[in-house]
Amino acid sequence: MNQPLSIAQITSSEAAEATQALVQTIVEAADDRKAADIEILKVTEVSYLSDYFILLSGFSRTQVRAICDSIEGKVEEEYNHRRPIRIEGKSEASWILMDYGDIIVHIFLPSEREFYNLEAFWGHASRIPFVPGI
User: How much is the pTM?
Assistant: First the structure.
């Protein structure tokens, strides 16, 4: 289990590595629930909101909620009970937003994802490939 560090103990490269590890944990948890079209956008250089956006799809409201629950559970388990700062949209489950501060996760139904098209909006962000099972 990962232990939290104090601010004084964290260098910028350690913080970046910790964030990248959390990104990997999140996408693995989503992949475990058969999330589709997983996109990782590094928005550090283009947004002050976050370092990464993770965009993914579920094919039903039930699956969208299950993906959210899987991410929340795996992060809590592996990161000393770390919880998102906020979760929005879980009751409707057409677009759930999970805010982990340095990472914002967007879980969509395909119709919502197509309509809002965040990939195009954040098209100038760096894309990080997700390779399942690594």
Answer: 0.87
